[in-house]
């Protein structure tokens, strides 16, 4: 792993990038929410933004999605310096955000949610229901989502399926860059794998994807570049071939800080197994049979099954 200052050098004008940030910052009074962040979002690439709570991920999303204006550095859209003043302006430029708390109406059919706020109407103002149903079904099929009936309430879908409907909707309405805000945070292992699969499909359709997450084990299988934020500052910006999963996890988990904590807890409890359980970052989880990405590993800190067997413990 190379030094963050020399890793993934950024071109001066964001040439070829859908979105480019150059030393972008944001202050709220005396509070520095974001400082000197540089990042590129390219077509057909997944840029992962990782960080714990309070790292600056939400502020970064809001700047790119047009909710907040940056007050330092440059934001370039298609190579042009831009200050976004509204989400509508961002949408008009092809930037769509899918938030963790999806804006869906649970009791409405899937097709109604797909076109919510952008309904197709005929010259008499009547809804073109059959056309919207057909488009919804086809767009979901194109993303690999085969639903029996788009008339069913969207609330009957799993969390992962609802995320995928939101992704397909953004693609249909012309998104070139897709911001995904913690799409796997509230999902179980298998549903997270489903969402990761659809992130790859969005990438393969030429979209530039910004995947916001606090979980390096979800980011690494799908990511092409990784920006790590801590307290509003970048502590690393790497291409995939420049950083291993263990190194990425170490940066996220605190590295030396985590090891020091493990030893302190072990000293307090007199149990050396605490060190192994806290610092263990290996393992594997189930993924869908048709998931084509690299293996997705377990969350930080979960003991490996073989370790449990070795200790003769039962779950």
UniProtKB/TrEMBL annotation:
Q: Cite the SMART domains for this sequence.
A: AAA
Keywords per UniProt: ATP-binding, Nucleotide-binding
| Top-level division of the source organism's lineage | Bacteria
The reply to whether Cell membrane figures as a keyword in the UniProt entry is no
Report whether Nucleotide-binding shows up as a keyword of the record: yes
Boundaries of every ABC transporter domain copy? 19-256
PANTHER family listed in its UniProt record: CARBOHYDRATE TRANSPORT ATP-BINDING PROTEIN MG119-RELATED, SUGAR ABC TRANSPORTER ATP-BINDING PROTEIN
Q: Which GO terms describe its molecular function?
A: ATP binding; ATP hydrolysis activity
Please report the organism this UniProt entry assigns to the protein: Pseudoclavibacter chungangensis
Q: List where Basic and acidic residues composition bias occurs.
A: 304-315
The portions of this protein that span the membrane are none
| Residues covered by region (Disordered) | 284-315
Name it. Sugar ABC transporter ATP-binding protein
Entries under CDD domains matching the protein: ABC_Carb_Monos_I
Question: What phylogenetic lineage does the species belong to?
Answer: Bacteria, Bacillati, Actinomycetota, Actinomycetes, Micrococcales
Pfam families named in the record:
ABC_tran
């Amino acid at each position: 792993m190379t030094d963050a200052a020399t890793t993934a050098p950024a071109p001066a004008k964001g040439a070829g990038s859908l979105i480019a940030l150059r030393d972008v910052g944001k202050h709220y009074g005396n509070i520095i929410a974001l400082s000197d962040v540089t990042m590129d979002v390219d077509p057909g690439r997944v840029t992962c933004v990782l960080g714990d709570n309070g790292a600056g991920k939400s502020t970064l999303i809001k700047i790119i999605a047009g909710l907040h204006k940056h007050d330092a550095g440059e934001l370039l859209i298609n190579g042009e310096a831009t200050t976004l003043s509204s989400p509508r302006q961002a949408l008009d430029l092809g930037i769509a955000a899918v938030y963790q708390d999806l804006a869906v109406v649970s009791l409405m059919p899937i097709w109604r949610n797909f076109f919510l706020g952008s309904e197709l109407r005929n010259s008499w103002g009547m809804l073109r229901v059959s056309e919207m149903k057909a488009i919804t079904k086809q767009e979901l099929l194109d993303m690999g989502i085969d639903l029996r009936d788009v008339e069913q309430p969207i609330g009957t879908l799993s969390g992962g399926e609802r995320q995928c409907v939101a992704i397909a909707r953004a693609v249909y309405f012309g998104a070139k860059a897709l911001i995904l805000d913690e799409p796997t945070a509230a999902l179980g292992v298998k549903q997270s794998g489903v969402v990761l699969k659809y992130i790859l499909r969005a990438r393969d359709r030429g979209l530039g994807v910004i995947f916001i997450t606090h979980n390096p084990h979800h980011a690494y299988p799908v990511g092409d570049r990784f920006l790590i934020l801590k307290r509003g500052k970048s502590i690393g910006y790497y291409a995939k071939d420049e950083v291993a999963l263990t190194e990425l996890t170490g940066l996220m988990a605190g590295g030396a800080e985590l090891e020091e904590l493990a030893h302190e807890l072990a000293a307090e409890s007199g149990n050396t197994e605490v060190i192994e359980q806290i610092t263990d970052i290996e393992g594997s989880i189930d993924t869908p049979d048709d998931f084509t990405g690299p293996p997705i590993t377990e969350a930080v800190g979960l003991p490996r099954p073989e370790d449990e067997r070795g200790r003769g413990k039962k779950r």
